[in-house]
């Protein structure tokens, strides 16, 4: 949330140009004081003095939050002013976080898309689902494991964005939505990006080495689709499918990290996640459909055309079937199936209501998948908490006795 408020015409003449507030910071830019706080009540230190002429309450609606502030005009110069900030719902956006860094570092952070954290969530959520489903019955998922995968998702998603932009520099410069990216705009060179790439990759490797050998092998293998994905939009109309294989590899790794092996329960989960990516990334691709058509970039948005919603409904059916199969194979309890029903219902509504010819609508529906994934994750954890550990152990014995185990190192 980033709201700019012109307090009054002469407030920029105040001698002390910075005002510290509880959990907020105000800074003047050309007479405008910028703040990030849900409720701001500015008052003069000498309330009611001659300099205070009018006092009015206003409300703003910005980024989904109601902002209330007091606005007053001044007569003469004001030598001192105190602000009382009541922080009711303070939010920090990825963009404002990046802007807090020195300008020479901002381009590198933008290269990792730190200003757009939605991608980190979409990489992490399949990991979180998998780790929670693989956890022993009656228990919450291991917090340390979740933390490691969250960090890994952050740095590997950043590395993937760098690799993508290095491949797509020339394409990005011709697309309205991407022309201001650091490489496309010329703020950074490919060589600088390559050097910077070593940082998130090194951190990701150090995290990977904390897991068991099966998971380490799977993690190393994930680099292949990560490197090749940007090329897919040049050769196939199904790059979103390849992105699904790449983005959701963490679901397989999470399962392996918890159980030390892979069994059949993880396959329908992985397939469901791939189909989910096909849904949300096809909607996302409609934002660039016109530019992509002109420059020759392929996507499912172009491939499906007028039949897009029919295709997306079909993918939703695959998601639902896969998640139901996962629930059966993992001996899940009723909250899990409630989650599947809610997940499916939301996707149907998302597909029905999105205006594919409106980039803003496409972006909004795309971002809603984060909240959808979080709600489903909560229900997975609730389901696992009430699941009997004996029931879980019995299912594992059944899998091993019937040789259904996929891979054990």
What's the quick description here?
The protein is 58% helix and 11% strand. With 409 residues, the chain is α+β, with helices and mostly antiparallel strands.
What does this 3D model show about the protein?
With 409 residues, the protein is an alpha+beta fold. The protein contains 16 helices and 10 strands. The strands form 4 sheets. The protein has a 4-stranded antiparallel beta sheet, with no helix packed on it. A two-stranded antiparallel sheet has the order 5-8. A hairpin with a 2-residue loop joins strand 3 and strand 4. The longest helix is centred in the middle third of the chain and has 30 residues, at 143-172.
List keywords for this structure.
409 residues, alpha+beta, four-stranded antiparallel β-sheet, two-stranded antiparallel sheet, 16 helices, 11% strand, globular, disordered N terminus
- pLDDT under 50 segments (min length 5)? 1-91
| Count of DSSP H/I helices | 16
Shape verdict: globular
The total beta strand count reads: 10
Strand percent estimate:
5-15%
Helix and strand composition category: alpha+beta
Helix content: 55-70%
Widest beta sheet: strand line-up: 1-4-3-2
Our Rg estimate from Cα atoms comes to 25 Å
The average pLDDT is 79
What is the N-to-C order of secondary-structure elements (H for helix, E for strand)?
EEEEEEEEHHHHHHHHHEHHHHHHHE
What's the multimeric state?
A: single chain
Largest sheet, if any? 4 strands, antiparallel
């Amino acid at each position: 949330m980033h709201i700019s408020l012109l307090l009054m015409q002469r407030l920029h003449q105040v001698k002390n140009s910075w005002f510290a507030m509880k959990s907020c910071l105000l800074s003047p830019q050309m007479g405008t004081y910028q703040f990030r706080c849900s409720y701001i009540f500015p008052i003069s230190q000498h309330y009611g003095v001659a300099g205070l002429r009018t006092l009015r309450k206003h409300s703003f609606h910005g980024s989904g939050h109601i902002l209330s502030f007091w606005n007053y005009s001044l007569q003469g110069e004001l030598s001192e002013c105190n602000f009382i900030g009541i922080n009711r719902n303070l939010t920090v956006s990825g963009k404002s976080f990046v802007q807090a860094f020195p300008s020479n570092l901002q381009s590198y952070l933008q290269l990792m898309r730190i200003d757009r954290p939605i991608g980190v969530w979409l990489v992490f959520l399949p990991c979180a689902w998998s780790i929670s489903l693989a956890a022993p019955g009656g228990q919450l998922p291991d917090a340390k494991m979740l933390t490691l995968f969250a960090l890994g998702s952050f740095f590997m998603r950043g590395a993937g964005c760098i690799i993508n932009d290095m491949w797509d520099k020339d394409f990005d410069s011709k697309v309205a939505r991407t022309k201001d990216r650091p490489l496309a705009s010329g703020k950074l060179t490919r060589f600088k990006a390559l050097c910077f790439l070593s940082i998130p990759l090194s951190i990701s490797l150090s995290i990977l080495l904390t897991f068991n050998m099966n998971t380490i092998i799977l993690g190393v293998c994930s680099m292949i689709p990560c490197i090749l994905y940007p090329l897919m939009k040049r050769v196939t109309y199904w790059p979103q499918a390849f992105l699904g294989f790449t983005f959701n590899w963490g679901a397989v790794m999470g399962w392996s990290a918890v159980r030390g092996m892979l069994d059949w329960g993880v396959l329908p989960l992985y397939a469901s996640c791939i189909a989910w990516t096909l849904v949300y990334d096809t909607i996302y691709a409609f934002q660039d459909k016109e530019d992509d058509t002109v420059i020759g970039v392929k996507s499912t948005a172009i491939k499906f055309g007028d039949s897009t919603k029919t295709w997306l409904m079909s993918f939703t059916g695959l998601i639902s079937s896969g998640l139901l199969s996962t629930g059966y194979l993992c001996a899940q309890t009723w909250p899990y199936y409630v989650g599947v029903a809610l997940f499916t219902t939301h996707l149907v509504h998302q597909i029905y209501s999105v205006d594919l010819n409106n980039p803003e609508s496409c972006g909004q529906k795309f971002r809603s998948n984060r909240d959808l994934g979080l709600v489903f994750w909560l229900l997975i954890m609730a389901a696992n908490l009430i699941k009997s550990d004996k029931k879980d152990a019995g299912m594992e014995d059944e899998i091993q006795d019937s040789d259904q185990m996929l891979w054990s190192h």
